[in-house]
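User: Before I run my own analysis I want an independent prediction to cross-check against. Here's the chain; please return only the C-alpha cells and, at the end, one sentence I can use as a sanity check.
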Amino acid sequence: MLGETPPVGREQNGPVPIGIKIGSTRTVVARPHERGIETHATLTCLAQYEDVLSGTTQVIYGEKAAYEYPERVEFMLRTGLPEDDARAAATATFFEWIVEEYDLPKNSVVVYAIPAVDNETGLQNLIDVIERTDIGEQLTRGYPESLCGSLPAFGPNLTAIGHVFISINMGSTNIGACAYRHGKQLSRFTTGSIAGNEVDRWIANNVEEETQGRVHIDGTTAREYKEEHGDFNNFRPFTDVIQQPGGGTHEFTIERSVMDALDRYVDEAVDVIANEFLPQLATDHTKVYKHVLDEPITLTGGMAAVPGLPETFEHRLGEELQHSVTVISPKTPETAAARGAFSLAQQFIEKEWY
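Assistant: C-alpha cells:
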C-alpha cells in the first residue's frame, strides 16, 4: 500500500525510517518502499493454545489468532493502552512478533504515534514496550497520534507543521480533538463515550432488534459489518447466514442496523466537538479560535475510513455551528498515523537529527 509521501532517498547503509501505530484494534507499521511507503497492518491481538503433541503453550498473533480462536483471542489494548502488568507483557510479546514478522531493522529511526488516552501508567508501559525492542537504535521518539494522522492529509513535505488547524481522531476507544499551531498542541479534548467500539456494540444491539431477537452477533462480527458495509454514499442492504443451535442455518437481511449506528455516531461526534471541544478552545485560545474554523479540519482514525463519513461530518458540523467548515481526510485514514510517523522519521534522517 502506498502513501502520499514521495520516494525515500537514503544511503544503502544508513538508518531506516519506521513509523508505528499500535492501536487498540490494529497495529500499523510503515517502512520504506522503492516507490514510497509500504504499510503493514494486522489486528492487535493474540491467542494461546496447547500443542496436542508436545503439550506446550503456543501463541499466535493478529488475524490468524482472531480467525482460529475467536472465543479466546485477546485484544490487549481495548482501553487504548496497556494499563497493567499483564497487558503490558502481552503487548510486549505481540510487538516482538511484529518486529520479527516484518523484519524491522535495528539500524533505524523509529517514530510512533501516541494515543490520546489520559493514563500515565499505560502510556509509560507502551513507551517501554517500543523502546525496549532492538529497533530504533539511532532514535526512538513518540508524537501525538492526531498530529501523525494529520500529516498525510496535508500532503507531502510535512506541510501540516506550518499550519494552525484542528485535528479530530476517530479511533476505536475514543474520539479526540486537538488544535495544533506549527506542530504544538494548544488545546486537547478526549472522550471515551463516543468510540468505534461503541458503534460495534450499537450495531450488535440493532441487529438483534432488526431481526426480532433471532440473531445475536458478537463485537467482531459487528465490526466486520461496519467495515465491509458501512457507506454514507451508497449503502446497500446485505444478507448473512448464521448456524442455528441444533443444526440448520438462518438467513437474514440487514437494512438499518449498520447505518443507524453510524448516523448516531456522527451526530454524537458533532455534538461533542461543537458543544464541548470548541467552547474549550475558545476559552483557552480566543484569538486562535476566531480564525481556526476557516482552516481545514483533519479527520483521522479508523472511523474516518467509512465511505462518506468525512463529508457527512463536515455537513452536520457546519449546520450545528452555523458556519461553513472544510473537513479533509487522508487516503486510508486507518494507516495515516503510521504513515505520518514515518514521514517524521524520514525527516530526522534527512536532517541528521539523531
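Sanity check: The two ends are 28 Å apart (CA to CA).
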